[in-house]
Design a protein that fits this description.
four-stranded mixed β-sheet, alpha+beta
């Protein structure tokens, strides 16, 4: 089954950023649908802070990775070590069968939102991110840099292309649409 994508029409998200979503992401990330997250992520690009190159915590996958780790460390008695051991064994035996590698519910929500914009295989189906840092967060969780080696990065017409060499020596390209960052201003 071929996946359909919805390219980002930024103007439909103007004024839709809601900083209160961070609280929902902390308490019940599964209650946030992709369209709500799209409105928040792409709506943020209309704020003064975005123009000043600031990205709020709730839009950063690295923030949620650290937040969840700290939360686990605060209450280690609640951790199910046996379930974690079984999960690691399954990943080792079968590989990571999902599209994302070891992510929290918040990271998954951001990844699914980005994935809703394209597949990254061509400039026309480039994944829409709001900042270059988000490209690397995405790659870390989906492509896994330990499996690939970055060999080249190019930029043309707002599309960033990252080229990797996989273990077989083949070249793989991933395209990211970062036009909005340049439309708003990027020093």
């Amino acid at each position: 089954m071929e996946k359909t994508f919805k390219k980002v029409n930024y103007s439909e998200y103007e004024g839709k950023y809601d900083e209160r979503i961070k609280e929902r992401m902390e308490k019940e990330p599964e209650s946030i649908d992709i369209e709500t997250m799209r409105a928040n992520l792409y709506g943020y690009t209309f704020t003064k802070e975005y123009a000043e190159l600031e990205i709020p915590d709730e839009l950063s996958m690295d923030y949620w990775e650290k937040w969840n780790l700290e939360k686990e460390l605060e209450s280690p008695e609640e951790l199910d070590y046996e379930a974690m051991r079984r999960e690691v064994e399954l990943i080792i035996q079968n590989g990571n069968d999902g599209p994302y590698f070891d992510v929290s519910p918040q990271e998954k929500l951001i990844l699914e939102t980005i994935d809703s914009t394209g597949d990254g295989k061509t400039p026309e189906t480039a994944l829409c991110v709001i900042d270059v840092h988000q490209e690397y967060e995405y790659i870390h969780r989906v492509i896994r840099l330990d499996v690939l080696k970055l060999i080249c990065q190019s930029f043309e017409n707002g599309i960033d292309c990252l080229e990797f060499r996989n273990r077989k020596g083949e070249i793989e390209k991933v395209y990211f649409d970062i036009k909005r960052r340049f439309d708003v201003g990027y020093p």
